[in-house]
Amino acid sequence: MRLRAPATSANLGPGFDVFGMALKEPYDLLEAEKLPEKVVQLELVEGYPIPLKPEENTGGYVALEMMNDFDIRGGVKFRIWKNIKPGSGLGSSAATAAAAAYAMNKLYDLGLSTQKLVEYAARGELVSAGAAHVDNVASAIYGGFIIISSRNPLRIYSVTPPSDLGVVVVLPDVEKGSTRRAREVLPSSIPLQKLVHNVGAASVLAAGMALGDLEMIKEGMRDAVVEPARSGAGIIPEYEGVRELGRRFGAGIAVSGAGPAVIAVIERERRGKLATALKDFYQSRGYECLVYVTEPGPGVSEF
Predict the structure, then answer these.
(1) For a tag on the chain, would you pick the N or C end, based on fewer CB atoms within 10 A?
(2) Could you tell me whether strands 165-172 and 262-267 are parallel, antiparallel, or unpaired per DSSP bridges?
(3) In this predicted structure, what is the pLDDT of residue 186?
(4) Residue 230: predicted pLDDT
(5) Which residues contact 267 (CB under 8 A, 6 or more apart)?
(6) 270 is in which domain, residue-wise?
(7) Which of 19, 4, 184 is nearest to 96 (CA)?
(8) Is 133 exposed, middle or buried (0-12, 13-18, 19+ CB in 10 A)?
(9) Residues in the chain with pLDDT < 50?
(10) Which of 159, 174, 196 is the last residue of a domain?
């Protein structure tokens, strides 16, 4: 079977480990083939380098876990076209993990629910991030916008974003380090005032998604906790400058996941001008960058 696994953007500002959204582009491609022997094989066909030992690869690890849990006698071979850059803040590891969970469920007729697929895909994040966080993998499986209201038990709400929501993602050419490190720099406690700010912002963003109100979504993309901490640790380059540019364009701006990618939300017809401005901004400060002019997209799908 052949699968398309989307890039995803987690947090969207104040929704740390709670909000996520699947993107139409970029995406990975993955071929999955049943094998008669109990083994997981990985082949990188083209794209960014990734670990090819099953226990070190998010998709390989997920497959191993599912083979053990369901006493699967056979195996699987994954051929991967890795178009989502690892360590970019665009859910590269989650795309592989989500595709692997989806493939194993189909190939071996496991009959798992969508929520159960998320739980298995999240195990892959242990390999890359040291934590089984579900915001990216849930987005990659459900598609659209998701809200994780509880981790234990897992509760996920799926919302279709408004049709006029356009997205621009800019990925500056800078190494942020591991996602594990990006989580380690976060504060263990926060002032009540910042909590109140983030609850308000997250509420407005979620309501905007549900009501189809793009202005509310933009207003809600304001984080007072995670993004400032990562910016202060040097993980997010030019953070204040890019947020100011977003304000001038009337766009919602947030760091995508753990960064360094930045996601901007704006009316679909205005995406081109914002993309040019963001690229010029980073280049003027000495950073080459990739720019994706995109929109919310579906979850893992066969083609």
Answers:
(1) C
(2) antiparallel
(3) 87
(4) 87
(5) 164, 166, 214
(6) 165-294
(7) 4
(8) buried
(9) none
(10) 159
Query: Any idea which residues carry the catalytic annotation?
Result: 125, 179
In a domain, 152, yes or no: yes
Distance CA 242, CA 184 (A): 24
pLDDT of residue 130: 81
d(CA 17, CA 119): 14
The CATH code of the domain that includes 94 is 3.30.230.10
Tokens coding 261: 């990618």
Position 38: which residue type? K
**pLDDT the model gives residue 30:** 98
CB 264 within 8 Å of CB 170 = yes
Asked whether 23 and 6 are in contact (CB, 8 A), the reply is: yes
Q: Tell me, what's the pLDDT at 262?
A: 96
- Residues paired with residue 289 on neighbouring β-strands, in sequence order: 172
Q: Are 92 and 7 in contact (CB under 8 A)?
A: yes
- Residue 256 located in a structural domain: yes
Question: Is the domain of 144 the same as that of 185?
Answer: no
